[in-house]
Design brief:
InterPro entries: DIP1984-like
Pfam families: DUF6847
Number of strands: 0
Shape: flat
Strand content: under 5%
Helix content: over 70%
Structural class: mainly alpha
Largest sheet: none
Keywords: Coiled coil
Radius of gyration: 24 Å
Protein name: DIP1984 family protein
């Protein structure tokens, strides 16, 4: 199995766990004399088995990420951390642009005037650079995911 396939499977398992959890919550309590729509014991057993499969899959994904070379100095795990931090930085600066570009109309000279304390143009340019770095890194990561066999 390729790493990319394992990542898709992990996402599927996570969705199934969430779905089972919701079904279990709906059937854990019923009115006296009624029966639940589904047997909570059966769902609990299914959930336990699914969580075990998810645990093993995540362990194998992590092992693969740690042992897969991304470039000369970094592993795939390192590249994922860097990509995520670049994405987080990009989001922060994108969120920062919004209040910096907000206009406040003044109706008289006695109203408080607000000024922007950052260069919107330079900040936007930096956001564009971060976006490009993120995209380029993500493309390389995705490519590597489809070329790499999952370690067990």
């Amino acid at each position: 199995m390729k790493l990319a396939e394992a990542l898709i499977l992990r996402s599927d398992y996570q969705k199934r766990v969430e779905h089972l959890k919701n079904r279990l919550f709906k059937n854990v309590r019923v009115q006296e004399g009624d029966q639940p729509d589904e047997d909570p014991a059966v769902m609990k057993a299914e959930l336990t088995g699914l969580l075990e499969q998810l645990k093993l899959l995540i362990q194998n994904i992590n092992k693969t990420n740690i042992h897969t070379k991304f470039d000369g100095n970094q592993t795939l795990a390192d590249a994922l951390v860097i990509r995520d931090v670049v994405g987080q930085e990009r989001k922060i600066y994108s969120d920062l642009i919004e209040p910096a570009t907000m206009r406040h109309d003044r109706y008289s000279r006695s109203e408080i005037k607000y000024v922007t304390t950052i260069s919107v143009k330079e900040t936007q340019k930096y956001i564009d650079e971060l976006s490009k770095r993120y995209r380029e890194m993500d493309v390389k990561i995705q490519e590597l995911n489809w070329k790499t066999d999952l370690l067990e």
